[in-house]
Amino acid sequence: MNxxxxxxHLEITPAIRxxxxxxxxxxxxxFDHVIDITVIMTVEKLNHSVEANVHLSGKDIFVQAxxxxxxxxxxxxxxxxxxxxxxxxxxxxQSHQTNGGLKHQxxxxxx
Length: 111
Hints:
Elements: E1 2-8, H1 14-30, E2 34-44, E3 47-56, E4 59-67, H2 70-99
Helix pairs in contact: 1-2
C-alpha cells in the first residue's frame, strides 16, 4: 500500500504524519486490498480540511472532512473512510458468498 500525504499552506510535521498513519491503520484492519491512499491537508484561515482518495481494486473512494482543528478533521475523515470501506467490503463479499463459485452454480439445462 502506498501512502502519499501532501499539505497546501501547511507543513507536514512528523507528528501529523504519525497521527495520519495511526488512523489509516484502521482501514488496513478491515480491508487488505488497498492499492494506494492519497491524503491532502489544506488550511484556509480558520478552516482545516482533509481529503483522502483511496484506490481499491475496481473502485475509488473519496472522502473529505473539515473542522477548526486539524486533528479533529483527521479523526472525522478516518471515521467516514472506515464506514465507506466496511460498506464496500460488505457489498463486495456478499455477491461472492451468495452465488458461490462457478463450480457450485447450477446450469440452466440441468433442471
